[in-house]
Structure to design on (312 residues):
């Protein structure tokens, strides 16, 4: 008996909340923008089959894939190293895209493993396990992709005992247009572009904008939220490394989009509007002008409020 789990794409940072804010994405056309993992019992050990549109970009040896490593990690944590599982990863998100590709695979795999073994971990414990594994892979724990991918919606990272994150209200009238140009950018490389230290004024602006955005979200003050949805920590140093980003930002503003930012560390961008016709016009412009390589795509999205779920 097998089961299949879907984990949606996510925007880390959401511009204003570097490492502290993340949101899950759902294309309005009903397509699934995220990875899927199928699991079934096996005689012994861990096996992994890699399929999907981006499987060719994964390590050729399945044991080097993070989904395989997830299974080994999970079985060891559960004390069931002798149990066998057969996994299939349907890789639908490009690696190094700024859409939480690795988080989608990790979350889908650990959610599927937890379901397969009768849910030994509750929601909080499983999220902690996801963060622990993600930290082993990336070198440090960042929940801004993992948490929204798993839980859905817009998530604010708290990182206090007993509460890793908390959902904050979103603007249901907003459309999030996301565009991936088709190239990959290393998260580690994009982090290195940022300075080690910031001026006090920049830090104050960061705190002011993020707190004002959270306040506006609870007040459902969309005008204020757009005014403060600014990235002062990363975008000024990363924009030039993303081909065509500055031109796209200017063109989207001319089309009437309310604000534009970098999804995660890029090269995917997001742009916000409350008008569907404007969103579709932005998508068309991006498809014609921002998508440069094979595999690039653009979607008009809402936030995915469901998060990771079974789809079998």
């Amino acid at each position: 008996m097998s089961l299949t789990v879907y984990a949606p794409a996510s925007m880390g940072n959401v511009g204003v909340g570097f490492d502290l804010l993340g949101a899950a994405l759902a294309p309005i056309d009903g397509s699934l923008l995220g990875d899927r993992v199928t699991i079934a019992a096996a005689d012994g050990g861990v096996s992994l089959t890699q399929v999907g549109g981006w499987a060719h970009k994964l390590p050729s040896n399945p044991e080097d894939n993070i989904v395989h490593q997830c299974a080994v990690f999970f079985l060891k944590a559960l004390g069931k190293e002798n149990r066998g599982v057969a996994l299939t990863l349907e890789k639908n998100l490009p690696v190094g895209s700024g859409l939480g590709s690795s988080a989608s695979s990790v979350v889908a795999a650990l959610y599927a493993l937890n379901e397969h073994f009768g849910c030994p971990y509750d929601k909080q414990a499983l999220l902690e396990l996801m963060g622990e594994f993600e930290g082993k892979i990336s070198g440090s724990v960042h929940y801004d992709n993992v948490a929204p991918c798993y839980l859905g919606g817009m998530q604010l990272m708290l990182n206090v005992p007993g509460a890793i994150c908390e959902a904050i209200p979103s603007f249901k009238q907003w459309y999030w247009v996301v565009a991936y140009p088709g190239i990959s950018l290393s998260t580690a490389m994009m982090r290195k572009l940022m300075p080690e230290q910031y001026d006090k004024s920049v830090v104050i602006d960061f705190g002011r904008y993020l707190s004002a955005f959270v306040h506006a979200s609870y007040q459902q003050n969309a005008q204020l939220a757009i005014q403060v949805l600014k990235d002062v920590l990363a975008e000024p140093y990363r924009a030039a490394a993303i081909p065509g980003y500055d031109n796209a930002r200017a063109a989207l503003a001319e089309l009437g989009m309310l604000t534009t930012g970098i999804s995660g560390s890029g090269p995917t961008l997001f742009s916000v509007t409350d008008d569907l016709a404007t969103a579709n016009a932005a998508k068309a412009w991006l498809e014609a002008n921002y998508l440069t390589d094979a595999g690039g795509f653009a979607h008009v999205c809402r936030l995915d409020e469901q998060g990771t779920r079974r789809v079998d």
In short: The chain has two domains: 3-168, 175-303. The mean pLDDT is 95.
